[in-house]
Design a protein that fits this description.
13-stranded mixed beta sheet; binds zinc ion
């Protein structure tokens, strides 16, 4: 009898744990979106779309009017905490200097081609290989990230584009619902020069004109992304540029990257379009969610603790970091289940005690002894 009660208690606890821990397993599997905005579709002839014309992309590219478009505004009061979202793991991201990479001004952004040896090996349900990375920025007078968080636009945003290895290549994958995985991170101005971003920025003056390219030495590409790859948002979306294929499983990191003021200036003023205009404000505005859910790998709001900081960016826009929030949230959960367990154990002990006295009264010592022993043993185990 006591064993049964104990088992029920444990099952109950386990079930509660699962329910409290999170939800949304379905989207976890799809975790592979990306934004392959400007991957390689920009040939020498250069496509004819422009950011000035972004409201009309749908006329030439029907997907751009779809219902799973990117970027989006991430409303942290509506994100769904999903403990199934494991830390993103990268492999092969540290490249030797003797491995040269092509850096190109494609008229829409600066693109760094990446070798396929770079891969996402954890965090997504499937394996993805890198294709390229690129940036989105504003101007000297305004920010230019594509995603926004609680309405806040960051200075700039990096996108590292990957394709699902179950497809033959990027071109084939970019049209499949689970074809791409894009890792996105926000850039902001900080006090010091960022040496990883410098590996790209210091070459921009050589590719000022559209179509120009240069070979740059390899470096640790992972340095362009946040150190903390555990805290992120995930949702299914699209390329943020024509043809806007809805094939991207997006990961947007919670931690922002810092580059110096001089570096940010270099980013927003170095490149030009074919018409000699400065290449600036190359970001698309937030798209409607149309009911899509945005998952978070961490808790962005804390249960009944309203005075604690709400997970994302603060208004000063310095740091997106909310490592403390995640930590606190985890703790609250732990304490909650601790209390729950203690209450269950107490109830159980009371039950045993009651039975024991009953049995004693009924004079059936064997049974009561078994119950009691089993309970004591299992309880302390
Ligand atoms: Zn992009």
């Amino acid at each position: 009898m006591s064993r049964a009660v104990l088992r029920v208690s444990l099952l109950l606890l386990a079930a509660l744990g699962r329910a409290g821990a999170g939800s949304e397993q379905d989207q976890d599997q799809e975790h592979g979106d990306e934004d392959s905005p400007h991957p390689r579709q920009k040939g020498p002839g250069h496509s004819h779309w422009s950011y000035e014309d972004k409201d009309h992309w749908g006329m030439d590219y029907a997907n751009c009017d779809g219902t799973a478009q990117s970027p989006i505004n991430i409303d942290t009061s509506k994100t769904i905490f999903s403990p199934q979202l494991r830390p993103i793991q990268l492999s092969g991201y540290s490249l030797p200097a003797n491995e040269k990479l092509r850096l190109r001004n494609n008229g829409h952004t600066v693109v760094l081609d990446l070798p396929e040896s770079l891969a996402i090996t954890g965090g997504y349900a499937q394996q993805y290989r890198a294709v390229q990375l690129h940036l989105h920025w504003g101007s000297l007078s305004g920010p230019g990230s594509e995603h926004t968080v609680n309405g806040h636009r960051f200075a700039a945003e990096i996108h590292v584009v990957h394709y699902n290895t179950k497809y033959a290549n990027f071109q084939e994958a970019m049209q499949q619902p689970d074809g791409l995985a894009v890792l996105g991170a926000f850039l902001e101005v900080g006090p010091t020069e960022n040496p990883y971003y410098q590996e790209i920025l210091e070459h921009l003056y050589k590719i000022q004109r559209e179509g120009e390219e240069v070979l740059v030495p390899g470096f640790n590409i992972a340095g362009l992304l946040p150190a903390n790859l555990k805290l992120y948002f995930h949702y299914n979306g699209s390329l943020t540029t024509p043809p806007c294929y809805q094939s991207v499983k997006w990961t947007v990191f919670n931690q922002t990257m810092m580059i110096s003021h001089a570096q940010m200036s270099m980013l927003v003023t170095s490149l030009r379009h074919d018409d000699s205009e400065p290449l600036q404000n190359n970001y698309r505005l937030a798209q409607d969610l149309y009911g899509r859910r945005v998952l978070a790998s961490f808790q962005t709001t804390l249960p009944s603790t309203k005075h604690l900081p709400s997970a994302l960016p603060n208004s000063h826009g310095d740091n997106l970091q909310c490592n403390a929030c995640a930590w606190l949230a985890g703790d609250v959960l732990a304490v909650l289940f601790g209390v729950l367990f203690a209450a269950t154990a107490l109830a159980f002990l009371l039950y045993i005690y009651k039975h024991r006295s009953q049995n004693a009264r009924l004079d059936s010592p064997t049974k009561s002894k078994v119950i009691y022993t089993a309970a004591a043993t299992e309880n302390t185990a």
